[in-house]
Each structure stands twice: as C-alpha cells, then as structure tokens.
Amino acid sequence: TVSAPTNFSHTTAISVLVAVVFFCVYGLTVTGLQYWLLCKILLFAAVYDLTTHTVPDYVHVLLLLVGLIQIPDPLAATAGFLLLPLPLLLGAMLSPGSVGGADIKLMAAVGPTLGVCRGVGGMMVGLLLAILCNASYSKRKKPFPLVPYLSLGCFLALLA
Description:
By secondary structure, the chain is mostly helical. It has helices at residues 9-26, 30-52, 57-67, 74-83, 86-94, 101-137, 147-159.
C-alpha cells in the first residue's frame, strides 16, 4: 500500500494563509469554517496526488461531509453533486485514460458546497491552468496529476 507523504511543512503555511483569507472574507462564521476545512482537505488531496498520483477514497468522503456542514439550498447542492462531475466523466468515457476517477470523484464531492455555477467556474479555471502549465513545461504528452489544478480552481471559486 502507498502511505501519505510525510513532509508537509510547506502546507502548514498555506493552510494558515487560507484560514486567514477565508476568515477575513467570511468572518468567523460557519461558512468561513466550512470553506477553510474544504480547502485544507483539497490541499491534502493536491499534495497526495502530486506525490503518489492517487487520492485515497476517504478524501472524497471528507470533502462531501464538509459540504454537508451547511446546506443553504438543498436543490443546488444536489445539482452540484450530480452535474459537476459529468464533464470529466464524459471525457473519461470518450477518451479512456484522459481523466482519472479521483478527479471525477473530487468534483462530485465538492459539488454540494460549490453548486453548479461556482463549480463549473472552478473546474474551468483548474482545467485551463492544467493545460497552460503542462503545455509550457512538457513537450511530450504524458499523464499528470489533475487534482492540484482542480483544487486551486475550487479555492478560487469559493472566493468568487
């Protein structure tokens, strides 16, 4: 089995910075706490995916549970859960090996928190960053971890 990476000292500073950002934007509210927890888990998933090219299933469960802390609109949360992963699922079905299951599950798990509009925006930003970064750094076509880019897109969507 693959264990989680052990050197996360740099993620502590990022986590504190994210906490400051969300608590400054949303105050010491349930929303601020929910968004900070979501981003803390997304940060873990991003680092895990970068180091192991996998994301454990419990990460998706945790993201979903954080989304259930506060549900202002149950219909929007359900729509986000069901619709947000569809473009990635379609991409994986049309081009096998192009998108991993962890990427699809990640977008489904953040769907209740982000909803469809912010979720699509975050996914588009994440995918655009992935395309730009990998096109500029890699001359040959090879698989790369997508979760870090999707996580950054979700973070930015929470601020919008």
